[in-house]
Amino acid sequence: TEEAKERALAARVITVPGSQLDISRVDVPQTTIMRISNINVKTENRTAYNICKSVGTVRRLVWRASCIVDVHFETSESMNMVKILS
Fold first, then answer.
1. In a domain, 54, yes or no
2. What is the superkingdom listed in this entry's lineage (predicted)?
3. Are strands 58-65 and 33-37 parallel, antiparallel or unpaired?
4. Phi then psi for 23, rounded to 5 degrees?
5. Phi-psi region of 71 (alpha: psi -120 to 50; beta: other; left: phi over 0)
6. Which of 22, 46, 73, 75 registers the highest number of CB atoms within 10 A of its CB?
């Protein structure tokens, strides 16, 4: 059922005779890096970090240019990237 599917996806694992299998949605992005462009050049690193931290666990920020930053989320956030990106 749809409800059983959602429970299994929330648990991220299903048990079948003899083993446990990790499961994930097929539409989950295969990255934990998000690029933000057109960020205000006056935005401080701490401010950008705190904004990103409000949606997920941030590993680091990498500034590519004065208005572009790559946000590296922890790999533990991989299952949450759809939510983070929306």
1. yes
2. Eukaryota
3. unpaired
4. -135, 155
5. beta
6. 73
Residues 33-46: pLDDT tens digits? Answer: 999 998 888 889 99
Tally of structural domains, the chain:
1
State which residues form the domain around 46: 26-85
- Tell me, yes or no, whether 41 lies in a domain: yes
At CA 22, angle to CA 72 and CA 59, rounded to 5? 15
Instruction: Render the burial of 15-24: b for 16+ CB within 10 Å, e for the rest.
Output: eeeeeeeeee
DSSP of 5-60, one letter per residue?
Answer: HHHHHHHTEEEETTEEEE---TTS-S--EEEEES--TT--HHHHHHHHHTTS-EEE
